[in-house]
Amino acid sequence: MDDRRAGRGAFFYKNGDRYDGLWANDLSQGEGRMIYANGDIFEGQWHEGKRNGYGSLTKRNGDHYEGQWVNDKREGQGSYYYKDKAKMFVGEWVNDMPKAGVYTQVEDEELLAKIPEKKHFTDPYFQPDIPILRLKNAAAVLETAMENVKRERASYRAQHIPIEAMFTASELDELERAFREAAQGSLFVDLLSLKTLLEGMEIYPLDKDIMKLVKVCLKTDEEVTEINFETFVRVFALLLEESMNNVEVEQQAVPEPVKVEDSVQFVKKLNP
Fold first, then answer.
1. Is the pLDDT of residue 113 over 80?
2. Hey, what's the torsion of the CAs at 30, 157, 241, 230, to 10 degrees?
3. For the chain, what percent of residues have pLDDT higher than 90?
4. pLDDT tens for residues 10-59?
5. What is the pLDDT of residues 215-243, one digit of tens each?
6. Tell me, what's the pLDDT at 125?
7. C-beta atoms surrounding 254 within 10 Å
8. Rounded CA gap, 8 and 30, in Å?
């Protein structure tokens, strides 16, 4: 299509990589598999030529990652199996690195049998009496650490995660219908209309908070007067995230208390 790759197809890169999957506008888009020249294999979701969404990476050395990707890096919930160490990390990833989670030994008898025993020391060894150290409220500490990571990375993830990965198709349809009503035939809404639109969803942010989130989503420090549908979706996701984290929002005089919980399911995919 206009000399641009679209639909399903395979492509062999000059560096030896091979991609099989869906294309749009000459870039990998949707489900696809990349077999890298070094023997690594990625299978999962792509957005504008980058790994975005859920996917798995199997490395040539046997290591295996499965989880979320943002902007071509591991970001969000994911698990990594270290073959040589027979260990597994499960938790939050930030900028391609494990950040907060659980690191455990994997019981793999077949793998352990292949590891040669080192017999450099033959004298019997006696374990001295060492006090056992345990982290108090370990589960609560881990949960808090992971939630802190999600909160700290919410803005970055809202900027880069495809909106199709944030919300279901039906949820996006509902948001688009509401946006079109506010836009009245335009492709954009001004910030006053945006605030009215959000109030119709029983979300009441301050004007300064709306501007702050719009700038975050657009990655700009300039003043913004209007936004398109995609930016609206990202702002909406961040507002729900902040509401769930008890970020201060304006309390309007309404007949009933502000209720955001009816829309909470929308934000669950922001931090999968």
1. no
2. -60
3. 58
4. 999 999 999 999 999 999 999 999 999 999 999 999 999 999 999 999 99
5. 999 989 999 999 999 999 999 999 888 77
6. 53
7. 11
8. 10
- How far is residue 38's CA from residue 60's CA, in Å, rounded to a whole number? 7
Question: Alpha-carbon distance 70 to 128, whole Å?
Answer: 47
Strand partners, 165: none
> Which pLDDT score, from 0 to 100, does residue 120 have?
43
Give the pair of three-digit tokens for residue 21: 């999957």
The terminus-to-terminus CA distance of the chain in angstroms comes to: 35
Average pLDDT over residues 190-210: 92
**Distance between CA 40 and CA 63 in Å, rounded?**
10
> Which DSSP letter does residue 132 get?
P
Nearest to 239 by CA among 251, 252, 227, 248: 248
Residue 48 and residue 53: Cα distance in Å, rounded? Answer: 12
Strand residues in the chain grouped as ranges (E): 7-12, 18-24, 27-35, 41-47, 50-58, 64-70, 73-82, 87-94, 97-105, 189-190, 226-227
3-state helix, strand, coil in the chain (%, to 5): 35, 30, 40
CB neighbour burial string for 32-54, b if at least 16 within 10 angstroms, e if fewer:
bbbbbeeeeebbbbbbeebbbbb
Q: Three-state DSSP class for 175?
A: helix
